[in-house]
Specification:
Largest sheet of chain A: 7 strands, mixed
Shape of chain A: globular
Distance between the termini of chain A: 31 Å
Mean pLDDT of chain B: 90
Number of helices of chain B: 0
Structural class of chain A: mainly beta
Strand content of chain A: over 45%
Helix content of chain B: under 10%
Oligomer: heterodimer
Helix content of chain A: under 10%
Shape of chain B: globular
Radius of gyration of chain A: 13 Å
Order of helices and strands of chain B: EEEEEEEEEEE
């Protein structure tokens, strides 16, 4: 158990809908990262937050957004969902900003299926 | 796009044998990490090697890093059935916070 929690574990929804994925980092970790894992794209970095502020952006679609709240939990919002958004979404956390040698601890993931 | 490419894509060995996986990357790095993922589950951090290190050990794991060749290898000695998983290398690009993952090696250890 990494100490990172994600809810829900599974999510089934329809195209065009909007969903929110939630992540609680390990106690004391200030950085939260979101990754998407799909069969065709592999593991892709989406976005990182540090202590409430956006720090880095990856291949995140404009239909997706995220935020980190004062209690450090984070939410990833996916809107206007398409079939291709079906994937495993992972949250990870680390202690500091997360460069130059930070271990990231991953949650169990949310499996999203868009029908 | 992914920075790292792993080789082989899949590996099947007998329990007790050693497993070697390789990772190549494209740009300069601060560190390289290896993660394990059991089927459909979260990633578990295995080991981190910094760019100024050449070799690192952790239990049955040995990682090497050759920055001149932009490559790393993960050796699992005396493999067990429980080692069956996908193994990913991940690098951090220069002054970047994100991890860039390779495509992974699927390891099957037969009892």
């Amino acid at each position: 158990d990494s100490g990172v929690t994600q809810t829900p574990k599974h999510l089934i929804t329809a195209t065009g809908q909007r969903v929110t994925l939630r992540c609680s980092p390990r106690s004391g970790d200030l950085s939260v990262y979101w990754y998407q894992q799909s069969l065709d794209q592999g593991l892709q970095f989406l976005i990182q937050y540090y202590n409430g502020e956006e720090r880095a952006k990856g291949n995140i679609l404009e239909r997706f957004s995220a935020q980190q709240f004062p209690d450090l939990h984070s939410e990833l919002n996916l809107s206007s969902l398409e079939l291709g958004d079906s994937a495993l979404y992972f949250c990870a956390s680390s202690v500091e900003v997360g460069w130059g040698g930070e271990t990231q601890y991953f949650g169990p993931g949310t499996r999203l299926l868009v029908l | 796009s992914q920075q790292g490419e792993e080789d082989p894509q899949a590996l099947s060995i007998q329990e007790g044998e050693n497993a070697t996986m390789n990772c190549s990357y494209k740009t300069s790095i601060n560190n390289l990490q290896w993660y394990r993922q059991n089927s459909g589950r979260g990633l578990v951090h295995l080991i981190l090697i910094r760019s100024n290190e050449r070799e690192k050990h952790s239990g049955r794991l040995r990682v090497t890093l050759d920055t001149s060749k932009k490559s790393s290898s993960l050796l699992i000695t005396a493999s067990r059935a429980a080692d069956t998983a996908s193994y990913f290398c991940a690098t951090d690009a220069d002054s970047s916070y994100k991890l860039i993952f390779g495509s992974g090696t699927r390891l099957l250890v037969r009892p």
